[in-house]
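#structure-requests
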Amino acid sequence: MTTPAWPSENAPATWKRKAAAKAEPALRRGVRFIDAAVLGLIALVVVLVSMPRLRRFALRENETDAIRALRVLADDALAGPDALRSGDLGGLLAASSTHRVRLEDVEVLDDGRLRRHGYLFSATEVAPGRTVLLAWPWDHGRTGLAAFAIEPGADPVGVANEDGRFSGPDRPPPADLDREDTGWSRITSPAATD
């Protein structure tokens, strides 16, 4: 019985490579099942921790956008009070040509209300010559939480609306900002004042 000899220095290169390949242990390629399972569990934990934070961020962003939109609408109502006399925000939008830039994705509903970024907007005349603009979530908990209001020329106010009583087209917040039992309070958030 003969044993193959290790190639000498003068042996052809192909023979040296074959012999070296037989002598080295085969390298495993790919990821083992246990490693893949550990990576999958880590990814699942990251997703489970991140999702509630992303949801809160989206709700907060919708609320901030609602306050900004109320400010824009209130400024336009001051500039053109006749456009808002009917309580139709669609008419207020039509009176200002700059809304295409500032409120580019507004949907005008059939009743003259507006919908933007998960919030509904309406105007209500609470006394002759005194109009209040309102914003509340289209779907409480999914598109926003708090409700907001502003009188043209005044600062916005808000109510936490934790119980979701102001949600959707059929449940707007009250426009009477002077009543203490409605829960309206001045908004002091720095993000809401820009």
